[in-house]
Write a structure and sequence with these properties.
alpha/beta; Rossmann fold
Length: 308
């Protein structure tokens, strides 16, 4: 009888250890693996742009703005706006990353510019960056699908550099950082939140669970064919938002459209259900653009609430 009890105790310990091992292995293949992958990515030399002078002040609207440029990971140039309050008190800061839509004028760093100006009047600084899907200035439609994985890693490195810039804006409290992104901007944001724990909160608008689902809409070199598709999609296994979002410590508001051609309710659910407990989700009577006042108002009120 004693031997049987001892055997059960040993088996229980082995089972408990195996569960912990699997959990630890999942962690290693999660954010640690992505961090390791990104650390191996070779980039052009990154230098912080001048953030201390050269701002255009708008006294009547209580904000100041500067147009900056710095090197992207792939050697191209990133254009960005820095929008700041006129006051010199300690400030929260928001990183804004835009969407992709070839048929609009705001598929670039201007998308959230008006919101950033409003936030400046409330004492919040902002950084609004260009990306490889910016129109004009990007190369999304000319890219080769064979380079999509490398482009993804380069963009994540560029976002990490953007966080360095955000923290370096004068008077910004590096412990009070926030993120807002839409479409590709939100999808990359979901990845960034897991590998950079700098953010207190994030608004993710129309983010997708598997980024390769969007890449296969087309590229300058076409799309991967049947015998190439599985291998193509497998590349993104470690970096996909639905795998990484669970590691983020940020408070998250997901915003989705009820009539979204590009994201089904199942694709949305595949992402927001993976977020940490406490994430909020809102759906709007809108298409993928989410250009409805309800979404904008909810987003800005939510940010005001979570920003200390």
């Amino acid at each position: 009888m004693l031997k049987l009890l001892l055997l059960r105790a040993v088996l229980f310990c082995l089972f408990f250890m195996s569960v912990n091992f699997v959990s630890a292995e999942a962690e290693i293949t999660g954010k640690e693996k992505v961090t390791s992958i990104l650390s191996a990515v070779k980039c052009q030399d990154f230098n912080l742009p001048d953030l201390n002078s050269g701002y255009e002040k708008h006294e009547s609207e209580a904000y100041q703005i500067k147009d900056i440029e710095y090197a992207a990971c792939d050697g191209k140039k990133i254009q960005a706006y820095v929008v700041r309050p006129l006051t010199n008190s300690k400030q929260a800061a928001i990183l804004y990353v835009h969407w992709l839509d070839a048929n609009t004028k705001d598929s670039n760093r201007t998308q959230f510019l008006e919101e950033a100006k409003i936030m400046a009047t409330k004492g919040v600084s902002s950084l609004l960056i260009s990306t490889f899907w910016s129109i004009p200035g990007g190369y999304y439609f000319e890219r080769r699908w064979q380079d999509d994985y490398q482009n993804t890693l380069h963009q994540l490195k560029d976002l990490q550099h953007a966080v360095e810039i955000l923290k370096s804006i004068p008077n910004v409290d590096s412990n009070n950082l926030h993120f807002v992104g839409h479409d590709y901007g939100a999808t990359f944001g979901a990845m960034l939140l897991s590998v950079d724990q700098s953010f207190n909160s994030a608004v993710l608008m129309a983010a997708i669970a598997d980024i390769s689902d969007w890449y296969v809409y087309g590229s300058g070199s076409g799309v991967p064919q049947a015998n190439e598709l599985d291998k193509f999609k497998q590349q993104f296994h470690s970096v996909n938002p639905h795998r990484l979002i669970q590691y983020s410590n940020a408070k998250i508001l997901f915003q989705y459209a009820k009539n979204d051609f590009f994201i089904s309710s199942q694709q949305a659910e595949a992402l927001y259900t993976k977020a940490a407990k406490g994430a909020e989700v809102e759906f709007y009577d809108s298409d993928h653009s989410l250009k409805v006042e309800a979404a904008k108002n909810d987003r800005m009120k939510w940010l005001e609430k979570v920003i200390r």
